[in-house]
Structures are given as C-alpha cells and as structure tokens.
Amino acid sequence: MAGLVNFEDEKEVKQFLDNLEVEYSFQCYKENDPEVLCLLEAPDGDVPVSLGCVPHRISMLLSGCQRLSDYFEGVKENYESAAKVLKHNCESNGYGESCYKLGAYHVSGKGGVTECLKTAYSCFMRSCHSTGKKSIDACHNVGLLAHDGRAHEGGADVAVARQYYEKACAGGFAASCFNLSALFIEGNAKGLAPDMKQALRYADRACELGHVWGCANASRMYKLGDGTPKDEKKAEQLKERARALHGLQKDRQLKFGE
C-alpha cells in the first residue's frame, strides 16, 4: 500500500526517519510565527469559555519541538541536539514537558548542558506551573530539591517542599503523599510541628495510590494508635495491601528481567 513504510528495507527506513526530522524541525522552528498566536482573553475583556481560539498550529509547533528533541534523543542518540531543542522549547515557548526534560538533563549534565541543580530546579518549577503531562512529576521534583536543600543556598526549605509535595500529591503522585507523611511524622525546627493526624492522612492517600511504604506506615499507625484511635482491623487490611503491592512489584521486576 502507498504511504506505508517497509521497515525491513534499510534505505526506506532511513528515508522515513530523515523525513521525520525535517517535519519536526519545520513544525518547531518554521511555523513559530507570532501572527498565528491568539489571545486567551477576548477583546472585550471576557475570558472565552473554551480555548478554541488557540490555533492548532500553536499546539503543533510546541509538540513538534518536543517530538524533535525525542527524535534526537531516541533515534539519533544525539543528546546535544536534543538539549538545544529542549532549551528552545522551554525558554522560548514555555512548553512544560520540555522544561521538565531540560531539568532532568541539568541534574546529570546530559547533552553537554551544565550540571546544575539550581538550573534544574528552575526548569522543574516552570514545568510544575504549566499544564503539561509532566507537570505533576515536576512539582514532586521541586519538592525533593527544596527538601534536601541542594538547590537552595540556605539549605533545606521545608515550607517550599511541603507546598510542592501537596501540589503533586493532589495530582495523584504517590511519592509526594508519602513524603508529606514523613514530614509530618518528623516535624521541623523551622516551623513544621509534628502532626500525626496529617501524617496518617497522607500515608493513607499514598497507600490508595499504590505506595507500598505508605500502606506499611499507615498500618503501623492504626496498630499503635498514632494520629487515630487504634484499629487492628484497619491495620491488618493495610498490611495485606502492602504485601500485595510488594508482590506485584516483585512480579514486574521478574518479568522485566526475563
């Protein structure tokens, strides 16, 4: 059939991949025309009910840049070129997924970028406040870097860590819920008092989202009566859930290694 690629033909595959690079490059750079931008606010000051006024081309150019970086990374294994595209799409277009990926590059110095946790923190922060599919992951990373203090000259900032863990937890990121539980168990000399009720609340939520240690901690708290009246039945239920989740994780690891 016309238009289909014979992936057993090396020349045909090469041509297909070369065409992808041209297409994604065009979407990323050549279609970035300010004349196609559309104000999100109507001329009379009323905010539109939907974002239908945003042209499809805007979405294409932003995701085109992301696809171009994915192409350089996954197909060409050209991390330097991928990093340049990510930087462009994050800094010029504010595309959250690219900001997240650029932050990850800065964590390890991948693609020739400067290995710098402060820069990574800024990238994750920008991604967190976007609406992209990696925004919740980015919020968690902001929380992590604020929590351990490596991105702050003044050391750990528990208030900021809590803020972004809460944002990620609300978005369904289990590890953030678990970290919040740990924060409230330990407390902090800078103003966060231990609060076992809050600790249990977040451990419960982490467990609901499939976090093994969230279930284990919540089980222990119900058993001991930390932050709640003792409840042996609930403790046992959560203990069994922790065991089941642990078993699933082991099964996945075995299948992955087969």
CATH architecture title of one domain: Alpha Horseshoe
Overall helicity = 55-70%
Could you tell me the strand content as a percent range? under 5%
Largest sheet: none
* SS summary, helix count: 11
End-to-end distance? 37 Å
Radius of gyration, taken over Cα atoms and rounded to an integer in Å: 23 Å
Unreliable residue stretches = 33-58
Number of β-strand runs? 0
**Quaternary organisation of the protein chains:** single chain
Organism: Gasterosteus aculeatus aculeatus (three-spined stickleback)
Subcellular location: Mitochondrion intermembrane space
Keywords: Repeat
Protein name: Cytochrome c oxidase assembly factor 7
How would you sum up this structure, described in words?
- By secondary structure, the protein is mainly α.
- Among the domains are: 75-171, Alpha Horseshoe (Serine Threonine Protein Phosphatase 5, Tetratricopeptide repeat); 196-258, no CATH class.
- Helix content is 66%, strand content 0%.
- The chain is built from 11 helices and no strands.
- The protein has helices at residues 10-30, 56-74, 79-91, 96-108, 117-128, 135-148, 158-170, 174-186, 196-208, 212-224, 232-257.
- The longest helix is centred in the C-terminal third of the chain and has 26 residues, at 232-257.
- It holds the Pfam family Sel1.
- It comes from Gasterosteus aculeatus aculeatus.
